[in-house]
């Protein structure tokens, strides 16, 4: 890394006089922070719909090979570079489901972050799972500092603290640039990690604000007055954090997957300026930044310190990493790769926009990723569970679209999708906060055959990139949304209306009900009973009972007739996207069955959500 002329002059003077270098940060200093957050095991590039050259275009964006190229490019273009990852590296794709962080660690060891803050998803497989991931991370040559000031694993109990609480991570680190020192403090989101992830019960999560101030004060007492907080704490919380603290200069955050900066030209809506400038408790400037998600954005933050521990200026660019391939839909709605004049026009538009950068993948990173992708293809076909019998997936009870096909008949289809019911049971079992689960029949796309069940089988059952969402609802709202879904299914199944969707038909766990298509709209589902987590028996669902409902993010957004879900999702206090891939959740569930000596089998009639109904045909 290059040293500034001022830093070199200070070092020369120190050597000449035989004095120690002055580390009191009493000279102006420029720092470039390159940062990402929430890559969530999204290691490959993805497709993002953008407006380019005036038309809707599907662009290849992100991916670790592109990210590493961009990091190298921006590091070489700047002096005094600090590379940060603000947490949630793992959980979210099959790369985590199958490699449990090994592939993520390998990618991060190409990026070589200076510091990495723990996020809530780092604890999805408990303290032991996190320790294994960090072991893989430590196998590289990067010496990435792992930070979490407010996480205290119990010494001698947690796999993270067999010798001391700092075996795997520490509260802060200090980075030195010539005569200048930068303190970096890590903060994890406490309640969310405890309530939505799976840390050991003995691991403590301390108050974010109090802990941040404690270690800021400790750094200042050492003469280090340029302070960066590396937080996994959400953008809105970071803004409040900035105002609550003294002596903080920069907050680089994650968790909320917030897009900052002006991307209106390409059709993306951001949640604020990049960076967002706040005032701390002292009245001094605090520079707040976040870099969206999935390695699609590399944040480049330029901070000038005035020499007295304050920010003199702060600006920067969130770089949207654009790949080499672009597609547009043809007259038949099929995506076609752009070539010739259209491609040249799009590339010219990319080059003209300061927030967009077209990068070629780093070859070494791409080679490592290829090793894991090839292993993934092999592992997809390996058995992860046994199914005791055939489970059928017809969307609506009695529908019998697959009557006689693959062994599914009128009897197996009597109560609808055995597969969707099982998926709902898996969601409820694997999601810590939820009381009940709801899954749309159209989201479960394949039978589960008797015998060996593989990851490939799981991806056929749940083929989309949907994630798990928790919604806080009243009993009355739950009753309403289930009726909405049944009414949507009725329109296609009974009325053959183009406005309907038989895939909307709801399946669930922890809640059951009767359906009668002969009743009027809004009243077709009745006799609701609930056995939420912690309930010993089934009981009538009261309208005023509060429940946490886990579902997939597609219907959580109000799609497929689930209108009340969409309304609830508009209230951020009642909506939590766990960002965990629903296929990954299902794989974890069936693996758990195997580990406990069980097989996949149909949900019991007592626990099935749909009991009886009279179809009107």
UniProtKB/TrEMBL annotation:
Looking at the record, which segments are called Disordered? 598-617
Record-annotated 5'-Nucleotidase C-terminal domain positions: 412-565
Q: Where is the Calcineurin-like phosphoesterase domain?
A: 31-258
SUPFAM superfamilies annotated for this entry?
5'-nucleotidase (syn. UDP-sugar hydrolase), C-terminal domain (SSF55816), Metallo-dependent phosphatases (SSF56300)
- A UniProt-annotated Pfam family: 5_nucleotid_C
Q: Which GO terms describe its molecular function?
A: 5'-nucleotidase activity; metal ion binding; nucleotide binding; UDP-sugar diphosphatase activity
**A biological-process GO annotation:** nucleotide catabolic process
| This protein's GO CC annotations | outer membrane-bounded periplasmic space
InterPro entries in the record: 5'-Nucleotdase_C, 5'-Nucleotdase_C_sf, 5'-Nucleotdase_CS, 5_nucleotidase/apyrase, Calcineurin-like_PHP, Metallo-depent_PP-like, NadN
Family indicated by similarity? Belongs to the 5'-nucleotidase family.
Q: What is this protein called?
A: NAD nucleotidase
Give the organism the record lists.
Grimontia sedimenti
